[in-house]
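Running log. JK asked me to keep both predictions on one page so they can be read side by side. First protein, sequence followed by its tokens:
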Amino acid sequence: MNILLINGSKKFGNDGTRLNKTLQALAKQTLESLGHSVSQTIIDEGYEPKNEVEKILKADVLIYQMPAWWMGEPWIVKKYIDEVYLTGAGALFKNDGRSRQDESLKYGSGGLCQNKKVMLSVTWNAPLGAFSQKDAFFEGRGVEEVYWHLHKAHQFLGMQSLPTFMCNDVIKNPQIELYTKEYEAHLKKYFS
């Protein structure tokens, strides 16, 4: 497989870049050891939207590596998606899917990336219980619902989502050895 790793970390406040760099490097090493071809984009180091579209067209899977900022992705990830995906109009998607001639065609069905997948790898200071417990902050909705908008953005392109990998308590109680062990197992489960 061809896999594109997209690092969306941005130095700000409590940093947020070191752990994400570590996880991205681990993903590259693990995926290459499994025989996959890996390319990378580090958003904060700059990118050319047309080149990114070509990378996405070549990739079978996109893996976004990013910290959580205010209940979602850092602004540079949203900017990347806005710039790159709009530049890819006609290559990544043909239209929104609807047709005046065929009312059975539905919104969100115009994606041209039907055989591609996307995975999120995210780092949170929030504890796991904040996502899984009904009486906690995210009301038991889980991490996938928090990133529902990103899953839908990629579904619009025709991609399928793989389960999200999440590190928790990364500032209050960092467990780097555990995170790397669990991420390696997650990658092997979905890419072996």
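And the second, directly underneath as requested:
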Amino acid sequence: MTRRLFIILILVLGVTSSVAYGAETAAQVIRRTAELLRRAPGIKTSFRMEGAQGAMTGTLKCAGSKFVLSSPAVSTWFDGKTMYTYNPRTSETTVTIPEPSEIAESNPLAAISANQDSYTATYGKTAPKGGKQIVLTPKKRGTGMKRIEVTVGATSYLPTKIVLVPVSGGTSTITLTSLSTKAAIPASAFTYPAASFPKATLIDLR
């Protein structure tokens, strides 16, 4: 092998390696993650959330746009249109027709599955070993979010950590301690169980 041919071969291999490494864009990664979540018949996850108001643990179940979140601090039911949020400290249940930002704050997985064309996706700089970090920045104002940081498994593409940074300030970090995309969840799970809270005061803000 001549020296010139050897140099050409090294350059070709270098270019090929570079293309393979950078072939998958951040947008493609987050779309792949979103597609996995959308296709899942039922999602069940346990999480730990940390923010300005402290930390809490809980569970989240989703099917399509519907979800139910349960935690000692708050419980939320969303049937695809109406959201019921129960506060055990005040024994009050608030009823709303939520904005997308409100849904994202209650169900961080919804932020991933949202219209990807509304965000600019870039790679983050603090990805853990064995993971990929994607930063989603809204293209337009009005989403209520300054940015959303999503960490996914390098091979599974399933989310492991979500950081919400709203325009209003304050950061919420959600670490998913477990996640199943094959959970069997009955439709009734997403309906507010009024009979379970007979003494709750209903605050209807619709």
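Observation for JK regarding the second prediction: The longest strand covers residues 54-63.
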